[in-house]
Write a structure and sequence with these properties.
Blueprint (H helix, E strand, L loop, with lengths): L2 E8 L5 E10 L2 E8 L8 H17 L3 E6 L4 H9 L2 E9 L2 E8 H5 L3
Parallel strand pairs: 3-4
Antiparallel strand pairs: 1-2, 2-3, 4-6, 5-6
Helix pairs in contact: 1-2
Length: 111
């Protein structure tokens, strides 16, 4: 497999504001996002998530992109859902029941 792919997110001035990591296994990837505190809750996360997910679908021919969001992280959950991810249920990770989300666009990308 392709393994981890890390994309750096920059703002309009070219300053690095965080990163998006995709752990790729076959045609599926798990996305994780880390944004600088100052850029959270401003719609930046939604754009970064959506743009990077669409890019990875094109470049790596992915059929599924999944995200796990810890319970109580409402901002992250909102960013993923507004970016086009759909909650599919819960998944146990590191002792907590995380929300499991899937990028809806990935299913349509090859249509």
């Amino acid at each position: 497999g392709a393994g981890p792919q890390v994309l750096v997110a920059s703002d309009a001035e070219g300053q690095d504001i965080g990163y998006v990591r995709f752990d790729i296994e076959g045609d599926t990837a798990e996305i994780s996002v880390c944004l600088d505190q100052a850029h959270r809750n401003r719609g930046v996360g939604r754009r970064v998530i959506r743009d990077s997910a669409l890019l990875m679908i094109r470049e790596h021919h992915l059929h599924r992109i999944v995200a796990l969001v810890k319970p109580g992280n409402e901002a992250s959950l909102a960013a993923f859902t507004s970016a086009g991810f759909v909650v599919r249920g819960r998944q146990r990770r590191g002792g907590v029941d995380a929300w499991a989300l899937e990028f809806a666009e990935a299913e349509r990308a090859d249509a």
